[in-house]
Amino acid sequence: MAKLTTRTEDYSKWYNELVVKANLAENSKVRGSMVIKPYGYAIWEKLQAELDKRFKETGHQNAYFPLFVPKSLFEAEEKNAEGFAKECAVVTHYRLKNDPDNKGKLIVDPDAKLEEELIVRPTSEAIIWSTYKNWIQSYRDLPILINQWANVVRWEMRTRLFLRTAEFLWQEGHTAHETKEEAIAEAEQMQNVYADVVENFMAIPVVKGRKSDSERFAGADDTYTIEALMQDGKALQAGTSHFLGQNFAKAFDVKFASKEGKQEYVWATSWGVSTRLMGALIMTHSDDLGLVLPPKLAPIQVVVVPIYKTEEQLQEIRQVVEQFSSELKAKGISIKFDDDDKTKPGWKFAEYELKGVPVRIAIGPKDLEKGHVEVARRDTLEKQFITLDNVSNEVEKLLEDIQTNLFQRALNYRDEHITEVSTFDEFKSVVENKGGFVSALWDGTEETEEAVKTETKATIRCIPLAFETPTEGVDIYSGKPAKYRVLYAKAY
Q1: pLDDT, position 92
Q2: Residues of the chain with pLDDT > 90: what percent?
Q3: pLDDT tens track for 78-135
Q4: Which SS3 state, helix, strand or coil, does residue 442 take?
Q5: Which of 60, 202, 344, 377 is most buried, judged by most C-beta within 10 A?
C-alpha cells in the first residue's frame, strides 16, 4: 500500500490523496463534481442523522422544494441574486435532437428554448419564499419552521473534494416569524445547534461569532457563523445561520394579518451546513497514516482482526469474539470481524488505520491461551492488552476517551493558534509564519477590511460573540478608533 504524502511535505496533496485512498470520494466525469463513495457517505449519514434529530427536537419539519428556480423569482431579491450570479448554472433549453450533419451526435434543439430560463438552485430562498406567500395569511400561520435536505449547484472554477465542489449536499433551513425578536432568536438558536453538533459529535472546537458586512450572506441583515481551525493554520467556515430581516418577505410580498388586524411583512431566517464538514473532519483530526475519526462519527467503531493459520484456530477465535461482540452491539457500538482470508493481518492493520477506525482488536491463538486481546487506539496509536472478560466495558470507555481526546487535542491546537497582535507588522508576521486566528482591533470599515485582505490574503472570519462589547484602542492597519475585536485568518 503506497504511503500518503505527509502533511509537512504538501498539505493540499496529503488531503487530496487521503480523500481518495480512504475511499471517501473521487472526482466524477462532471468537472468540479464528486462521487461520494459508500464509506464517505456512511460518515455523512451519521452526521446527517444527528443534525436531523436536533432540528426536529427544536420544532422543525423536513420538506422538499424544486431544484429549478425561474429566473424572475431568483432576481426578485436583488442582493441575493447579485451575490450568487457568478456561480449560477442556467437551463435555457429542454430538449436535444439528432445532429443532421453528424449522425449519432446530439445538439440542442433551437426550437425547444424555454420561455423563461431556469436557475439550478445555488440556494433556495427564492423558490421557498414564493411558496410561503401562499402558506401565510395570518399570524396564526406563524412560525413556519422548515428544513430541506438537498443538493445545490454553485459553478465553482477552483474545486477540491468536499471543500468546494460545483455540486454538493447540504441542508437548508428556512423559517418565517411574526416578530424580529423571534427571527433573531431562531438564527441564534441554530448557530448554537451547529456548534453543539460540531463540537460534541465531530470533536471540532469552533468560535461562534457574526460575519462582517462584506462577508455575510447575500440578502441577510446579519450572519452568525461557527469558525473552525484546520491543522495547516487555515480557518474553515463550518456553518452559518442568517437573520434575513424582512428582505425576502418584501421581495415576494409575504404579509400576514397581525393580532391587531394590520398587514405586516414576516421576519425570516435561513441556515445551513454542507458536505464541506467532511473536509473539516478530515483536516482537523487526521495524520500521515490516514483518517482519524471521532468514534461518534465512525461507520466502524471497532474492528477485530483474527490472526490464525488453520480453520480450527479461526473458529475458536470466532466463538470468543462473538461473545464480546454481542455485548458491544447491545451498547450501540458498531463492530466488524474481518476474517477475509485474501489479505494478511499487517495489510488489514494499515487499511483500518487509513480509514480511521477508532479501535482495532487483534486476537490469535496465543491471546486465547493468555485470556486477553491486543487493543490499539487510532488517535494515539497506543496499544494495550485487555482481558477477555472485560473487553466490552474497556472498549466502551476507550471510545469515550478517544472522543474526548480528539476534541481536547484540536482545542489545544486552536487555542495555541489564536494570537493577539497590536501592530500591523506583528499581524503580517503571524499570518505569514504561524498561521491560525489573529486577534486584532478593527475600525469596522470595509475599506480597512479589504486593504488587509489585499495585502495579506487574511479575511475577517468573524466578530466573536465574546468580543462584541465596546473596545478601546485603534485599528492595527488604519490607526482609527476600533469598533470591534475580530479574528482574521487565511481561510478555505
Answers
A1: 97
A2: 95
A3: 989 999 999 999 999 999 999 988 888 999 999 999 999 999 999 999 999 999 999 9
A4: strand
A5: 202
Residue pair 482/443 in contact by the 8 Å Cβ criterion: yes
- How do beta strands 359-363 and 235-245 pair? unpaired
In contact, 480 and 452? CB cutoff 8 Å:
no
**C-alpha–C-alpha distance, residues 264 and 279, integer Å:** 42
pLDDT of amino acid 157 = 83
Q: What is the DSSP letter of 440?
A: E
Q: Which amino acid is at 58?
A: T
296-311 pLDDT, tens digit per residue, is 999 999 999 999 999 9
Q: How confident is the model at residue 343 (pLDDT cuts 50, 70, 90)?
A: very high
What is the rounded CA–CA span in Å between residue 296 and residue 403?
A: 7
Asked if 18 and 4 touch (Cβ cutoff 8 Å), the reply is yes
pTM of the model: 0.95
Cell, residue 294: 471521532
142 vs 362: CA distance, rounded Å: 57
Q: What is the DSSP letter of 432?
A: I
**Parallel, antiparallel, or unpaired for β 484-489 and 459-464?**
antiparallel
How would you classify the pairing of strands 383-387 and 359-363?
Answer: unpaired
Instruction: Mention every residue, 6+ apart, whose C-beta is less than 8 A from residue 90.
Output: 71, 117, 118, 119, 120
Chain position carrying cell 469515550: 400
Q: In whole angstroms, what is the distance from residue 245 CA to residue 288 CA?
A: 46
Q: Are 402 and 203 in contact (CB under 8 A)?
A: no
Strands 167-177 vs 267-274: parallel, antiparallel or unpaired: antiparallel
* 361 within 8 A of 302, measured Cβ to Cβ: yes
User: Any idea which residue has 467503531 for its cell?
Assistant: 301
- Pull the grid cell for residue 91: 437551463
Q: Strand 113-120 vs strand 68-70: parallel, antiparallel, or unpaired? A: antiparallel
Strand partners, 222: 243
Kindly state the average pLDDT of the residues 289-298.
98
Backbone angles phi, psi at 41, to 5 degrees: -70, -30
> Helix-strand-coil percent breakdown of the chain, rounded to 5?
40, 30, 35
Q: How far apart are CA 404 and CA 90, in angstroms?
A: 46
Angle at 40 between CA 38 and CA 42, to 5 degrees: 65
- Cα separation, 314 vs 488, in Å, equals 57
The set of residues, in sequence order, having a beta carbon less than 8 Å from that of 188 and lying 6+ positions away, is 224, 241
Which residues make beta-bridge pairs with 237?
A: 227
Instruction: Reply yes or no: is the peptide bond before residue 143 cis, omega within 30 of 0.
Output: yes
- 395 SS3 class: helix
Long-range CB pairs of 367-373, under 8 A, 24+ apart, other chains included: 368/316, 368/317, 368/320
Give the chain's end-to-end CA distance (angstroms, integer). 30
